[in-house]
Specification:
- The complex is a heterodimer of chains A (257) and B (65).
- Chain A has helices spanning 23-33, 51-62, 76-90, 110-122, 135-144, 165-174, 189-197, 207-210, 215-235, and strands at residues 2-4, 7-9, 13-16, 37-44, 65-68, 94-97, 126-131, 150-151, 181-183, 202-205.
- With 257 residues, chain A is an alpha/beta fold.
- Chain A is built from 9 helices and 10 strands.
- Chain A has a 5-stranded parallel beta sheet.
- Chain B has a 5-stranded mixed beta sheet, with no helix packed on it.
- Chain B is mainly beta and 65 residues long.
- Chain B has 1 helix and 5 strands, in the order ββαβββ.
- The chains are: A alpha/beta (257), B mainly beta (65).
- Chain A binds chain B through residues 16-20, 26, 39-48, 50-53, 55-56, 59, 68-69, 71, 77-78, 81-82, 84-86, 88-90, 156-157, 184, 204, 206-207, and chain B through 6-7, 24-26, 29-34, 37-39, 41-42, 57-65.
Amino acid sequence: MLQLYQTMIRSRLMLGTARYPSPAVLADAVRAARAEIVTVSLRRESAGERAGQAFWSLVRELGVRVLPNTAGCHAVKEAVTTAHMAREVFGTTWIKLEVIGEDDTLQPDVFGLVDAARTLCAEGFEVFPYTTEDLVVAERLLAAGCRVLMPWGAPIGSGRGLNNLFGLKALRAHFPDVPLIIDAGLGVPSHAAHALELGFDAVLINTAVAQARDPVQMAAAFAQAVEAGFAARQAGPMEPRDLAAPSTPLIGTAFRG
Amino acid sequence: MKILVNGAWREITRDVLAGALEELGYGRSVVSTAVNGEFVAATMRTRTVLAEGDRIEVLAPMQGG
């Protein structure tokens, strides 16, 4: 079981809810992923438009826990206000805090992120900050009151996997007791398995599932990969070597000596 | 009076946020509100008086990653 703030979670695969071909496919994908947590957002809705209301009904019927995000926020003030609005609508103190610093890579503005995290933690939010693998930023986020970190694997929606393996390994080694969830950039199930094998606690996937030719089948594939990666981590992977080491014992080899 | 609702100018007759939302057609929707960038809790909408030119954000649940 994975503890995120005061909540115990069984599934290590979290799913985003955006960009699916239809609400029905989204619902089937969440079930196929066996996800217990899905991310949601807030957007402007004009009067009479019922898309947001219908979406919220669908999510509630799925019976999953929601993690609202502050996606699209570029300033601390925007992110903090959006968090307040999300807490009211979704009825949770959880917030996936995003303060975007650069539009091409959607990489976090880590300075704004730490400021916003400090404010929200002091107000009783349980903050899941979308951050980079930077150790110093991670320290500051923890000092601000965060008890979970969500480092990126690669830029959001890029599907490139774990871009900075060295940095991510260092982050894992540096904070062995902090739940670390890889958020963003994973493209295929093997990326997710790799993250779990490295000791990351969970992954959050959206585009890789939603934009697959068959999102439901891909969601199931990610679920299997996450389970395999976690089991492998627990089993203790062997140390890599530079040279070959025969797996078949050499003692008694025929035609020798 | 004229207020800016989700980036579009709207004419309203009621000057309290709760009434304005009803007039604008948000009556029974699950929404969250902010006025001039400040969050206004649902419980405060009946006590929040609007002024000409106020910027109102009305947000609803939406898909997100």
